[in-house]
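User: Please predict the structure of the protein below. I'd like the answer in structure-token form so I can feed it into my own downstream comparison script.

Assistant: Understood. Taking the following sequence of 328 residues as input:
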Amino acid sequence: MSGVQTRIVTPDETGMRLDRWFKSHFPMVSHGALEKYLRKGQVRVVGGRVKSNRRLEAGEEIRIPPLPDNGHFTLKPKPRNTQHADDIRQMIIFEDETMLALNKPFGLAVQGGTNTKHHLDGMLAALEKNGERPRLVHRLDKDTGGLLLVAKTRQSAQKLGDAFKAHKVDKTYWALTVGSPHPHEGTISMPIAKRMVRIGDGDEERVVPAEGEDAKKAVTDYQTLYDAGARVAFLAMRPVTGRTHQLRVHAAAIGCPIVGDGKYGGASSRIEGVSTKVHLFCREMTFPHPKSGKRMTISAPLTGHMLETWKFFAFDTNATCEWPEGLR
């Protein structure tokens, strides 16, 4: 049986519910046990009785009663997956006390789902430190590689998440398309929606250009940086809105599907001599730093099959572009 403890709420725990704070610090205590402690006044915040949904503030003192250390309350820590930790460290291209910037490999799922047991979100548990584990703040498709931001603290996750929601994050993707778009630069403004589409002998849900109440505004800026005649083009694409599969749907809709994107480009997305994998890569992001608020830019070096394709066509792997404000 442990003795009475006093814990201080840290700045990055500001706004956290008491029950979630308890689960984070004392996962061996069930919610029912916590409620019992609260009813009896054994758990207190700043000396007063509170409810489990009480929002905490930095610097507040939490009284923790003696906790049994046997039977129901014993929780064996899960062994840390050192391979996952090593794999993630290989992806890191920037790190400070608030965040990580990863260069996600093509083919690695960001989150779990049906038949997806190996994913980045699960791997991040291997980097847990002092009860704090890195948190996802946005996503990339499994087939898309490149820059992914990860928060190291709860407070950083809130700040970065707010920046994404407020459209304060400028993202530049690189894509290889079949054919070169005309004009060579511009804006695609085309609402899209999820619809059931007849594929072969069955129906499948796809994101498609659409009209109607369920259609969502989708806007993409693009620039053609290089092309190989009429065969393929190296595009920089900026999603002004962040819809699912937006870049892939827009590229296919203007007649220049992304190479390897059979889902939206069909057989016409294949180019002889290059990989049949999707050629879409998150190259760069400009965003407010979660602690200082100052805007910063991080770029990810091209990797995998896209790097091989860029060498094949002799495209510049250090190409840059500037987005005129007028395009927005």
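That's the full token string. The radius of gyration is 24 Å.
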